[in-house]
Write a structure and sequence with these properties.
104 residues, six-stranded antiparallel sheet, two-stranded antiparallel ribbon, elongated, ribosomal protein, rRNA-binding, structural constituent of ribosome, ribonucleoprotein
Length: 104
Amino acid sequence: MHVKSGDTVVVIAGKDKGKKGKVLRVFPKDSKVIVEGVNMLTKHKKPQGPTAPGGIVKMEGPIDSSNVMYFCDKDKKAVRVGHKILSDGKKVRVCKKCGEALDK
């Protein structure tokens, strides 16, 4: 996948197009990601005892990973992600605009 959890991404398609957020979870088998503040769903939770009360809860739902692009802090816009093999044999993700390595 071109994004990992913790990355800042921009939504490029769907009802939340243009929103920017942090990737919370990644589901590589389904090719889906959960982004902070994007695709908000309303869930009706049943009380689970005295410590966990019930109610209506807002939570993020998964969206397809093809609908997000990595947000480069150096370029200040959404960019495509490439891969590069370093001299020590390690494979890292790189920004296709500025060439900066994204994986530290």
